[in-house]
Amino acid sequence: MAPPAARLARLSRTVSFSACHRLHSKSLSDEENLKLFGKCNNPNGHGHNYKVIVTVRGEIDPVSGMVINLTDLKEYMQEAIMEPLDHKNLDKDVPYFAEVVSTTENVAVFIWENLKKLLPMGTLYKVKVYETDQNIVVYKGEETISEK
Question: Catalytic site residue 24?
């Protein structure tokens, strides 16, 4: 009997965190920021209850039956997402956002970069961030859109 073929699977885990921010670009005037970001440019900021779904991929280990140990993934997500972001003012408490506008797109990139440092190489597949039920960003590590 032939050995079973390696099986590739994707595994996702969800966490939620609360944070506040202000959409404001240092590259724009106050008037331009207000026009671009509207009420989200409120000088006092505003908050969200973010939901993040992290998806990893890999071969199902024939011994453990897992792509990754869920306990390890939970700990990585705690370190990469919850500790730096939960109950924080993104613009004031997270150094990354001192120079980067704290849009949901950039929150997704921040989470990706943090997780990439912790997870086994090549296993991180997707970061999906829900700012609201209507506003969702998916990031898969792409750096640019290649032109053909």
Answer: no
- Catalytic option among 21, 24, 48, 131: 131
Catalytic residue among 46, 59, 83, 87: 87
Lowest mean pLDDT among 6-10, 91-95, 108-112: 6-10
Instruction: Give one DSSP letter per residue of 41-80, joined into a string.
Output: G-TT-EEEEEEEEEEEEEEPPTTT--SS-HHHHHHHHIII
* CA distance linking residue 109 with residue 129, whole number of Å: 10
Residue 132 makes CB contacts below 8 A (sequence gap 6+) with 48
In this structure, the dihedral spanned by the alpha carbons of residues 120, 57, 122 and 108, taken in order and rounded to 10 degrees, is: -90
Pick the catalytic residue from 20, 40, 105, 113.
Answer: 40
pTM above 0.90, yes or no: yes
State phi, psi for 107 to the nearest 5 degrees: -65, -40
Residue 70 pLDDT grade (very low, low, confident, very high; cuts 50, 70, 90): very high
Answer yes or no: 20 catalytic. Answer: no
Catalytic residue at 99?
no
Given a cut of 70, whether residue 101 has pLDDT beyond it is yes
